[in-house]
Amino acid sequence: MTSSTSITGWVLAGGRGTRMGRVDKGLQPFRGATLVGHVLARLAPQVGAIAINANRNLPQYQAAAAGMAVVPDHLDGFEGPLAGLQTGLRQCATELLLTAPCDSPFLPPDLAARLQAALLANGADVALAVTMEVDQPEHGGAPRRQRHPVFSLLKASLLPQLDAYLATGARRMEGWFNTLRVAEVLFDDAAAFRNINTLEELQRHEQDNACAATAVPREAVAATGSDADPLPVDQALRLMLDRIASIDATEQATLHAALDRVLAEEIISPINVPAYDNSAMDGYALRGADLPLDSMTGPVTLAVIGAAYAGRAWEGRVGAGQCVRIMTGAAMPAGCDSVLPQELAAAIGHDTVTIAHGAIGAGANRRFAGEDLAQGGVALAAGTVLRPAHLGLVASLGIGQVTVRRRLRVAFFSTGDELRALGQPLDDGCVYDSNRYTLFGMLTRLGCEVLDMGIVGDDPHALEAALRAACRNADAIVTSGGVSEGAADYTRDIMALLGDVAFWKLAMRPGRPLAFGQVRDNAGDGDASAWLFGLPGNPVAVMVSFYLFARPALLRMMGAESRQTMLRARAAQPMRKRPGRTEYQRGIVSMGADGAPQVRLTGAQGSGILSSMTDANCIVVLAHGQGHVADGDMVDILPFEGLL
Ligand code: AMP
Ligand code: MG
Fold it and tell me: pLDDT value at position 214?
């Protein structure tokens, strides 16, 4: 039996920090979080409890660990990893203790499981990780086994033995392990055990994403973007969509209830629509063969022998020289193949109608059975968002109930100490929380079931609690604020701590910072997870990044594809644009004097100026590589109609 709940994760952060210029290694910023934040995030899903061993900067570790225990050595004087291990074994409430250093952000996701399996299989006291290393591979060095004693799983019952060993004055981890029954577990991926020792190494890893490809989650490996080299929008969108799958659950809905829902299964037409040949016009049903052959023939006069109405067919057969008065939608009488609209008759008598040459061609104005939808054909594809036309089309098949995807549940909240809810007084330096209202509107329009979680202050515990609760109650979480570099650091740390979250710097304006990933809550019963979209705080940036990233991703989760038509319009003014980023400027599109669409900007384009969104009816999308736009140039626009 293996079980993660019998293991306490023990993160070793007790070093003196002499190598990183006397800064605390674990607290160094790395890929949108701290080094220790990455270790905690990787370890948390593998163990039942987790704590940190640190001797300095305890409050900072406390913040990074969001309420987890941070415990200093019992031995004085930075006595190394064994001292940390002693503290770990002392306060461990579970059967086993798993150690990992605070500077190993790439540790393997199956570390605990594999070590535990080996411990049990070998009846060992300790299981530790081993990799094959090659020294100087360029000189053909032979591979050797490298033990990683700081990545080990130990029985908590070893404490008396360790106390006795330390009492001898010995301090070496390897030395103590030599006195125990040790099981070694060979891991293929040596890179996963790499630790980061110097600031230079840290910077190199921060930039050199590819080198960690096998060890860290894919989205964290992918260029996360930096100030110097931000991530292009299309690349970020692809990375995001690649990871997301649609929810499976479906339900039955009546047509009324199906409006704006996503069709889960294709609809095959059980009948022909229309079900029978019928007339497209009010007029006279006749045989095409009776029409005047050419202009030399002169008009033809036919005898009107009956009348056909919609819902009341004329039952006889039309012969040569005859016709039937017919209404729109009435079944074509037998023998007829054409309809003369009444207004095109040359003359209408009491029971005759006269037709000149050229009034209609043979076969005119006849609707064929199945010309709209053929029996057995696909009437609607799965994934269709059911709009009014779709409801009508389904009804035309005689179908009154459809299978739709369960509504997507999306939790959202705003972050920031400066935010005030409506109804509260606006203190100095505060702003009313507007993002929650734009998000409410956008999510509701998208057809999501929304869960408004209010404002969460810049407080690690509140943030963690909100994210955990959101995981339990929603498929996706949309937050605003706190993901930019200047924002309260722990927003990012907490997000990183609870899952695989990448912090992107995007080559776009507005909306440069974005957090995306999966957050998890395995604290309560079972495991709950949700996709997190951490949008920037500025109100325009929130809307733009919602439309560009959250919307297509949420649509994919809903089982629908995002279809957004980009149109072209002529710029009615010059537009400033910096190459190397995609800009989303707010525009007003109108009909130009020449009848073609033209677009001008709404004025100030700051990412905090929400009136630029209310004044606009489209977004002008200026592509990544593009520079300034001259008056009269053609530009891409995304009309708000259908989007907002
Ligand atoms: P942040 O990314 O948290 O630093 O926020 C960036 C800017 O957006 C700050 O000026 C915030 O005050 C503002 N902001 C953040 N959240 C909201 C919100 N919910 N409503 C209005 N403004 C906000
Ligand atoms: Mg903030």
Answer: 29
Residue 83 neighbours by CB distance under 10 Å: 23
Query: Residues 494, 505: contact at Cβ < 8 Å?
Result: no
Find the 463 Cα to ligand 2 centroid distance in Å: 12
Dist. CA 224 → ligand 2 center (Å): 21
Rg (CA), the chain: 35
Answer yes or no: are the C-beta atoms of 384 and 415 closer than 8 Å: no
Q: Are 258 and 391 in contact (CB under 8 A)?
A: yes
Query: How far apart are the CA of 539 and the centre of ligand 2, in A?
Result: 12
Q: Given a cut of 80, is residue 34 above it in pLDDT?
A: yes
pLDDT at 213: 29
Ligand 1 centroid distance, CA of 418 (Å): 8
Kindly state if the Cβ of 534 falls inside 6 Å of ligand 1.
no
Whether the pTM exceeds 0.70: the reply is: no
Tell which one of 413, 415, 419 to mutate to probe ligand 1, the residue whose CB is within 8 A of the most ligand atoms: 419
Chain centroid to CA 143: how far?
43
pLDDT single digits (tens) 573-587:
999 999 999 999 999
- pLDDT tens sequence across 475-516: 999 999 998 877 776 788 888 888 888 888 899 999 999 999
User: Is 487 a pocket residue for ligand 1 (Cβ < 6 Å)?
Assistant: yes
Strands 49-54 and 7-13: parallel
Write the pLDDT tens digit of every residue in 162-212.
999 998 888 888 889 989 999 998 888 888 888 777 777 777 776 654 333
Best of 455, 538, 540, 611 to mutate for ligand 1, by most ligand atoms within 8 A of CB? Answer: 538
Residue 377's region, left for phi above 0, alpha for psi from -120 to 50, else beta, is beta
Which pLDDT score, from 0 to 100, does residue 137 have?
A: 59
Note the residue count of the chain.
Answer: 644
The DSSP result for 460-508, as a single string, is HHHHHHHHHHHHHH-SEEEEESS-STTS-HHHHHHHHHTEEEEEEEBSE
Question: Does the beta carbon of 463 sit less than 6 angstroms from any atom of ligand 1?
Answer: no
Burial 462-498 (b: 16+ CB within 10 A, else e): ebbbbbbbbbbebbbbbbbbbbbeebbbbbbbbbbbb
Q: For 590-617, how does the pLDDT look when each residue is reduced to its tens digit (9 = 90+)?
A: 999 999 999 999 989 999 999 999 999 9
pLDDT attached to residue 311: 95
Q: Give per-residue burial for 350-366: e unless 16+ CB within 10 Å, then b.
A: eeebebbeebbeeebbb
What ligand 1 atom has the least distance to the C-alpha of 455? 19
> Side by side, which strands form the sheet with 182-186?
69-71, 49-54, 7-13, 96-101, 143-155, 126-134, 182-186
User: Cα–Cα distance between 410 and 342 in angstroms, integer?
Assistant: 57
Ligand 1 contact via 283 beta carbon (within 6 Å): no
Please name which of 615, 490, 604, 621 lies closest in space to residue 566, comparing C-alpha atoms.
621
The 8-class DSSP code of residue 333 comes to P
Looking at the CA of 537, name the nearest ligand.
1
Q: How far is the CA of 540 from the centre of ligand 1 (A)?
A: 10
Pairing of strands 96-101, 143-155: antiparallel
pLDDT digits (tens, 9 = 90+) for 238-275: 889 988 999 999 999 999 999 999 999 999 999 999 99
Give the residue, out of 435, 458, 535, 545, with the most ligand 1 atoms within 8 A of its beta carbon, to mutate for a pocket test. 435
* Ligand 1 mutation pick, 480, 489, 533, max ligand atoms within 8 A of CB: 480
